[in-house]
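Input record, target 12 of the design panel.
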């Protein structure tokens, strides 16, 4: 009697069942990448809070939390539409040949009634993966401007960067239908440039208008170091970011069951999950090594070198051999350390976490490496060969897009006197003035810096928390 049952169980699954199972597994895959990518933002919060001085720890942490609160709705209402509409390029208008109703929808299909669209298991969860990329782009800027930017100004800039600027360049060069991909074979498979490079360029533009923290530079042109108040928390934050990066890499892949079995990159060219995982691991190893030797063992730059190394090999992570990834990540980390020192001492750019060097310089180097070491690799559904010319075209597009957007938006905020907190607030510390408390409440008094109007540090004074509460008024 059992024979018919076993015979029935052994029958192959129908095409409909396989399609349904594939959709559900795909949805689960992206769901878990989204969950693990939250570690990136837990890491950014710890990383930046550790770099901040004690009087600014809570304000720094809160800024990271509010990034999620602001960028999520803006990306939902217009960021995802930009990605789907702008791939052929600008202009974007209903009457142009670049506009199609289907392409310019949000891509998040809901049913006519309340509730989800049960016939589409993947669009919404894939949207969420891109949303977390947007948080990442904004968080890259966040750490660089700590301790002197107004919270409100930062949130405006974060929404602009996270929901307009980076997603516009992603439409152009990080999609199978983007004009850079289709015409020039531009290749940046895991977002060296489209996330990190552009966010770093945007940050540099903001820093030019924001200016350095009070006391950072002397009249003689010397640079004063502001040491992290807790380097261990900073290191832990970076390790959380590194853990979340594995999910970031995985979320950049597409389950390509229609054109060929297996995995594809964002351009729908074949790759494997294992190959990109190997590249990211070698990237960390090479980055740590390069950062250690270039900085002569400095802990901060050793760890940051790992991040720079991975960003440097992300553009070609789907094609690099492990040895190539290891060597390129090491070289990228070395160059990022030197770029950070040059920006700090020569350009007098006060980047508190080295974001312009680690994300910006490494991101653009990552695009360049593909043109040098992976030229000829076919990219996209049209199999356009990648080349040094195509990569340079992408770099020349993304650099002004990022830098000019950041500079222009922050310039407008500066002219409206909305970009930077008042001097009294910066000297007192944002925690006491904004939240009326300190992360370390046992500190009954605070040693505040005494500065001249031009920002020159002339001494220090001990003041109580009660005295600080009277400074500055409303400033957010």
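The sequence produced for target 12 reads:
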């Amino acid at each position: 009697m059992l024979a018919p049952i076993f015979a029935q169980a052994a029958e192959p699954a129908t095409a409909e069942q396989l399609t349904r199972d594939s959709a559900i597994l795909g949805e689960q895959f992206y769901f878990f990448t989204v969950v693990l990518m939250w570690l990136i933002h837990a890491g950014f919060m710890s990383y930046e809070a550790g770099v901040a001085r004690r009087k600014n720890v809570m304000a720094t942490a809160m800024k990271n939390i509010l990034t999620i609160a602001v960028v999520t709705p803006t990306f939902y209402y217009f960021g995802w539409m930009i990605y789907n509409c702008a791939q052929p390029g600008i202009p974007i208008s209903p009457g142009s040949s670049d506009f199609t109703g289907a392409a310019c929808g949000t891509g998040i299909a809901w049913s006519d009634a309340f509730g989800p669209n049960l016939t589409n298991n993947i669009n919404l969860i894939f949207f969420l993966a891109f949303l977390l990329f947007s948080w990442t782009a904004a968080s890259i800027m966040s750490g660089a401007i700590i301790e002197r930017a107004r919270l409100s100004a930062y949130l405006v800039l974060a929404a602009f960067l996270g929901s307009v600027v980076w997603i516009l360049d992603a439409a152009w060069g990080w999609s199978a239908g983007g004009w850079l991909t289709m015409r020039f074979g531009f290749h940046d498979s895991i977002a060296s440039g489209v996330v990190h490079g552009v966010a770093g360029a945007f940050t540099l533009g903001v820093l030019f208008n924001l200016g350095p923290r009070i006391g950072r530079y002397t009249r003689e042109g010397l640079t004063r170091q502001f040491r992290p108040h807790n380097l261990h928390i900073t290191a832990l934050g970076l390790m959380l970011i590194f853990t979340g990066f594995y999910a970031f890499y995985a979320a950049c892949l597409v389950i390509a069951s229609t054109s060929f079995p297996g995995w594809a990159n964002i351009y729908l060219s074949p790759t494997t999950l294992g190959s990109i995982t190997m590249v990211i691991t070698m990237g960390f190893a090479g980055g740590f090594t390069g950062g250690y030797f270039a900085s002569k063992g400095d802990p901060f730059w050793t760890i940051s070198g790992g991040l720079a190394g991975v960003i440097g090999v992300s553009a070609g992570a789907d094609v690099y051999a492990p040895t190539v990834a290891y060597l390129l990540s090491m070289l990228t980390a070395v160059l990022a350390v030197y770029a950070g020192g040059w920006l700090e001492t020569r350009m007098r750019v006060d980047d508190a976490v080295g974001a312009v060097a680690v994300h910006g310089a490494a991101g653009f180097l990552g695009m360049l490496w593909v043109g040098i070491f992976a030229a000829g690799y076919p990219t996209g559904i049209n199999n356009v060969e990648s080349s040094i010319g195509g990569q340079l075209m992408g770099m020349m597009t993304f650099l002004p897009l990022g830098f000019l957007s950041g500079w222009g938006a922050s310039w407008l905020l500066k002219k409206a006197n909305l970009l930077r907190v008042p001097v009294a607030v910066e000297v007192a510390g944002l925690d006491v003035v904004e939240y009326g408390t300190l992360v370390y409440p046992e500190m009954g008094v605070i040693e505040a810096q005494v500065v001249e109007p031009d920002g020159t540090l002339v001494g220090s004074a001990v003041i109580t928390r009660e005295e600080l509460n009277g400074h500055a008024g409303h400033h957010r």
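The chain has a mean pLDDT of 85.
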